[in-house]
């Protein structure tokens, strides 16, 4: 029985440490970026990707102990990556300036929906009585 308690404690430590590292990453992005840079599509996408990385890391750490029934929607994440690439390289892909904002919104939206689906599955699993 003490083995299970220590395994649970180790998982919680990993979760807390990973959350702390992601908070540090967000803090560094905010501290070393000028306020005008947050109006650019790159900054918005970077912030969305850091948040998505946090959710995917949580999924990885949780599935180490429990069989995972929730998986991120691969097509949704791929769509977000395609939108992000289009927004990050508009000149090379010949994307009109007005379309860049739509691509940023699409990238952030798809990452947000994917993350919300994963977090919802965490809540459903935690709410089930054992």
SSE diagram, text form:
Elements: H1 2-31, H2 41-63, H3 74-88, H4 97-127
Helix pairs in contact: 1-2, 2-4, 3-4
What does this entry look like structurally?
This protein has one domain. The chain is 76% helix and 0% strand. The protein is an all-alpha fold and 130 residues long. It has helices spanning 2-31, 41-63, 74-88, 97-127. It contains four helices and no strands.
Notable characteristics:
0% strand, mainly alpha, 4 helices
Give the structure's gist in a few sentences.
This protein is mainly α and 130 residues long. The protein is 76% helix and 0% strand.
Number of helices: 4
Mean pLDDT: 76
> What is the string of helix and strand elements?
HHHH
Name the beta content range: under 5%
Distance between the termini: 17 Å
Low-confidence stretches: none
C-alpha Rg (nearest Å): 18 Å
**Global outline:** flat
């Amino acid at each position: 029985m003490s083995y299970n308690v220590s395994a649970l404690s180790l998982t919680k430590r990993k979760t807390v440490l990973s959350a702390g590292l992601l908070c540090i990453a967000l803090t560094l992005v905010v501290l070393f970026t000028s306020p005008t840079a947050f109006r650019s599509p790159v900054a918005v996408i970077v912030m969305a990707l850091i948040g998505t990385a946090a959710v995917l890391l949580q999924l990885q750490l949780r599935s180490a102990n429990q069989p995972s029934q929730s998986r991120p929607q691969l097509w949704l994440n791929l769509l977000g990556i395609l939108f992000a690439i289009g927004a990050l390289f508009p000149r090379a892909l010949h994307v009109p300036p007005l379309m860049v904002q739509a691509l940023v919104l699409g990238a952030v939206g798809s990452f947000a929906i994917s993350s919300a689906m994963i977090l919802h599955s965490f809540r459903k699993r935690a709410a089930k009585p054992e």
